[in-house]
Amino acid sequence: MIETALNERSTDNHVREDRVFESGNPRTRLSAPRSVLARERAQIARAMLADCRFCAHDCGVNRLAGPNGLCHAGAKARFFSAQTEVSDELELVPTFAVALSGCDLRCDFCITGASSWNPHAGAGFDAGAVAAKARAALQNGARTIMVLGGEPTVHLPAALELVSLLPETAKLVWKTNAHGSAQARELLDGLFDVWLADFKFGNDVCAQRLAKVPGYVRVVEENLLWAAGHSELIVRHLLMPGHVECCWRPVAEWLAANLSGVKVNLRSGFWPAWHAARHAELRRTVSTPQSDRAIALARQFGLNLIP
Amino acid sequence: MKKRPTQKGFKSPGENQVSELLILPDGRILVHNLTQPFAELLAELNPDCEQIASRSSCRTEVKADVTQTTFALLRRGQSRIIRP
Predict the structure, then answer these.
(1) Which of A20, A196, A211, B55 fits A107 for a cystine, CB–CB 3.0-4.6 Å?
(2) Across residues A209-234, what is the average pLDDT?
């Protein structure tokens, strides 16, 4: 019954009717104000928690009844950080970054592991209060508003509610692990100006070992291809010590072959945080030779690296 | 339904500006969640670092919240900044 009800309320028709592509511009143009669409979609997303399939784990659990999925998140979102930062891509900063607690991946090296693995961390998310802070940040010079986590896909209803309360002209950034589902993409379509997406692992073996996620590469590639056609896309890769050849090389090669010219931010500041020590090669930072090798590979594949 | 106990002294996210940094033995400093006041401080300490200079020049009106302890640590070395 739940599935039928959800299908009747499916976002498909609603969202697709809104999608109009301008010539030469991959960004989805909305036929109604962003705030209005976001509010409607937030309601739809909240109902979809009854059969949650926001991420590629595709749990299908009822989160309205409690935290039953792999992310351990219930229906209510929490957040552990909301402040203006300047450490992201230069073209996006200063950004007012809102970090929602909880994630669907279990990256042992996660720099915010304590909050990202725990959807109960931080404080209850009040979209109105956070939106007020975001508007103040914009007035004080912030260039963008970034929604991240953890993984914000886990808390789509809250993220969409926040969007519904933000100025129409605000430049919004969706910072994601790119492990979301097609359902999540439909709900997000056209609402965010920039998708800032991680491509962490270049193969499924490393992804399974370090983040306990199966079938990672195919899911991320699918999401990146979609994002490139529906918004501006920036791909991030956090270089990990000892993973230049197994992870960065295939990522770089795939990006060159499939998303030629896409903006790529290669980040070399790996920080052996959280449970990184569980893996011998992750107990250190990235050495200068490894970093240099990674940059050389990027040049070899003709990637469009951005600071 | 049982209520969660209130954490004494707990502040909601966003009430304070927080940056984290990791100082490595070779003099490198890794910075996480870099705020502008902190970026300005780092730029003063190492004006030659292009990465930090470009970020410290972003203008927002936020109050600095940097401790003396952190400042003292940073003064010890000429460091380059790497963003995780």
Answers:
(1) A211
(2) 98
